[in-house]
Design a protein that fits this description.
Elements (H helix, E strand, L loop, with lengths): L1 H21 L3 H14 L2 E9 L8 E9 L4 E7 L2 E8 L2 E5 L5 E3 H5 L5 H10 L4 H11 L4 E3 L2 E5 L2 H8 L9 E14 L2 E15 L2 E14 L10 H7 L2
Antiparallel strand pairs: 1-2, 1-11, 2-3, 3-4, 4-5, 5-6, 7-8, 8-9, 9-10, 10-11
C-alpha cells in the first residue's frame, strides 16, 4: 500500500512538472533571458535607429562588445563621424575627432557642450541586458506576439526613453507613447526593439521625436574585447 502511494506521488510530480514550467509568463521569460545574458561571460550587439526622413538628428549604427567584470567597447556613428568608447566600472575613455583617446575629465572640460553631452550619455549608458530589464519595467503588459513578445509602454516609460538622462536633462516631454518587442530563442535573448514618439521641448526649442531602435544580440560566449593601450591609460584618469 505504501509503495502504491509513493508511485502515485511520483507520477503526480512528473505530470505537474510541465504544468509549472508552462506557467511562466512572457514577461518572466524575457527577464530570465536578460539575466542569463548579463550573467554570461561576454556578448556583442548591433544597434540601428530609424527616424523619419528629413529628421535633423539621424544617428548611425552602433556596435558594442562587453565582457563580464571586464571592458565594454562601443563604436557609434553620428553624422558620418565615428566615436569609440571604452568603459570599465565607473571609468571611460573616448576618442577625440583626431582619433586620440581622452578621459571623461577631459570631456567634462569641454565648454562648447558636445563633450558634456557625451559624458552624460556615457554616465547613463546601459548594456543591452540592463536595457531589457528597464524596458520590461516600462511596459504596461507583455504579451506573446507571433514569434516575439511585446506591449505598449507606459507614458512614464516612453518619457524616460525620450529624455536626455534620468531626470530628463531639463527637457519637457508631452504626448509620449511607445512600444517594445522582444525575441527569445531557446532561452536566449536574440533581439529587441523599442519605438517611442513625442514632443520634446528643451530650453524653449520644441521638436517632434519619432524613433525606432532595434538591438540584435550576437556572439554570445565568443566575444573578445580588445582595448588599445592608450585607452587603458586614460581609464585610470
Amino acid at each position: 500500500m505504501l509503495m502504491k502511494k509513493i508511485i502515485l506521488i511520483g507520477a503526480t510530480a512528473l505530470l505537474a512538472g510541465p504544468l509549472f514550467a508552462a506557467d511562466s509568463s512572457p514577461k518572466d521569460d524575457i527577464i530570465n533571458a536578460a539575466q542569463k545574458l548579463a550573467a554570461g561571460d561576454n556578448y556583442s550587439w548591433h544597434t540601428t535607429v530609424v527616424v523619419p526622413e528629413g529628421s535633423r538628428f539621424r544617428p548611425g549604427p552602433t556596435d558594442g562588445k562587453t565582457e563580464k567584470d571586464g571592458y565594454t567597447y562601443v563604436k557609434m556613428s553620428f553624422g558620418g563621424n565615428d566615436t569609440e568608447i571604452v568603459m570599465k566600472g565607473d571609468n571611460a575613455a573616448v576618442t577625440d575627432p583626431n582619433g586620440g583617446w581622452q578621459s571623461l575629465a577631459d570631456l567634462a572640460g569641454d565648454d562648447q557642450g558636445p563633450g558634456r553631452f557625451l559624458v552624460g550619455m556615457i554616465r547613463n549608458f546601459k548594456a543591452p541586458a540592463a536595457q531589457v530589464t528597464n524596458l520590461v519595467a516600462a511596459a504596461k503588459e507583455i504579451k506573446t506576439d507571433g514569434d516575439a513578445c511585446g506591449g505598449d509602454l507606459t507614458e512614464a516609460g516612453a518619457k524616460a526613453l525620450l529624455s536626455f538622462g534620468p531626470r530628463g536633462g531639463g527637457a519637457s516631454i508631452t504626448n509620449a507613447e511607445g512600444s517594445v518587442k522582444f525575441w527569445v530563442k531557446d532561452g536566449a535573448l536574440v533581439k529587441f526593439e523599442f519605438k517611442v514618439k513625442g514632443t520634446v521641448d528643451f530650453n524653449g526649442n520644441s521638436r517632434d521625436v519619432d524613433r525606432d531602435t532595434t538591438v540584435e544580440i550576437k556572439d554570445i560566449g565568443a566575444t573578445k574585447v580588445e582595448v588599445p593601450d592608450d585607452a587603458k591609460k586614460k581609464l585610470s584618469h
